[in-house]
Amino acid sequence: MEDAVSAASFPGTTFLAGGTNLVDLMKLGVAQPTALVDVRGLALDFVDELPSGGLRIGATTRNSDLATHPLVRERYPALAQALLSGASAQVRNVATLAGNLLQRTRCPYFQDISKPCNKRRPGSGCPAVEGEHRGLAIFGHSPGCVATHPSDMAVALAAFEARVEARGPRGTRSFPISELYRLPEDHPDRDTTLQPGELIVAAELEPVAPGTRSVYRKARERASFAFALVSVAAVAAVSDGVVEDCRIALGGVAHGPWRALRAEDSLRGQPAIPDNFARAADAELAAARPLRDNGFKVELARSLITRTLQEVCL
């Protein structure tokens, strides 16, 4: 592993595992790495139960294996549901945990090298702001970028408050998945907080408390192999009809998984009834900043949050 990290410290070098996103971008001319470091031979394909009852998942674990793992399906069903709703079975058989987390944000202008794009060429502009942005962000965007992150799995991991372990030239560090992704702000070309040469090694899930339920739901243009217009991962514990705890993450609406903290705060300690679910959704969506053609996502998110909370809490 140290050799891989060392090799990737050279400018323009990129790690390669499943390649389901990177290779496509290379074919389009969007990604042009000077060298690739193949990490498929590293011993990072595992799903280990921790003494606490949580899970540690290796970076090269295939999405299909993770989605069908008995402990994932039993303890973290929203994660299994998210994985199975993403891509096709053929892609899931190749795609890896780390590669899924590190997919580049989605935008038609980013994938078209004949168009300007601040993500590809900083300072060239963001034509999506006034152009085609129906499927793009309603939270956390900037004048320089309105792209969205495509991962379903990352949304579920955000709701479970997973931690990411990365190894780089300066050693190993562990941090919440909420700290992995960057909002575009002044540097839309930087999707994540990873440093040059840092390799994601694993993701770790804390044990879930007894009685906790989780659900992942996704609204998309077609029934299969389509990115989310809006998705919701909800993790909740209800006792005597009162929401003791809840964690909600949204997909398809921002540069990374969007943690719905306002909705969570609104719902904790409140009766688990549909009116409160709708109020929680409204509390979060009051901060949305839809663009000219994607305002429909606000109402779609409201409906999806409300229905998902009904499913997980009632």
Can you walk me through this structure?
The chain has 314 residues and is α+β, with helices and mostly antiparallel strands. The chain has helices spanning 2-7, 22-28, 63-67, 70-75, 77-84, 89-92, 97-101, 153-159, 261-267, 274-285, 296-313; strands at 13-16, 35-38, 47-49, 55-58, 163-168, 171-176, 199-205, 213-220, 228-239, 242-251, 258-259. The protein contains eleven helices and eleven strands. The strands form three sheets. A five-stranded antiparallel β-sheet has the order 3-4-7-5-6. The protein has a four-stranded antiparallel β-sheet with strand order 8-9-10-11, with helices on both faces. A two-stranded parallel sheet has the order 1-2. Helix 9 packs antiparallel against helix 10 (274-285) and helix 10 (274-285) runs antiparallel to helix 11. The radius of gyration is 19 Å and the shape is globular.
Give the C-alpha Rg: 19 Å
Order of helices and strands: HEHEEEHHHHHHEEEEEEEHHH
- Tell me the structural class: alpha+beta
Question: Which residue ranges are poorly predicted, with pLDDT under 50 across at least 5 consecutive positions?
Answer: none
- Quote the distance from N terminus to C terminus: 46 Å
Helix tally equals: 11
How many β strands by DSSP? 11
Helix content: 25-40%
Which terms summarize this structure?
314 residues, alpha+beta, globular, single chain, 5-stranded antiparallel β-sheet
Give a summary of the structure in a few sentences.
The chain is 27% helix and 21% strand.
List the helices and strands and how they pair.
Blueprint: H1 2-7, E1 13-16, H2 22-28, E2 35-38, E3 47-49, E4 55-58, H3 63-67, H4 70-75, H5 77-84, H6 89-92, H7 97-101, H8 153-159, E5 163-168, E6 171-176, E7 199-205, E8 213-220, E9 228-239, E10 242-251, E11 258-259, H9 261-267, H10 274-285, H11 296-313
Parallel strand pairs: 1-2
Antiparallel strand pairs: 3-4, 4-7, 5-6, 5-7, 8-9, 9-10, 10-11
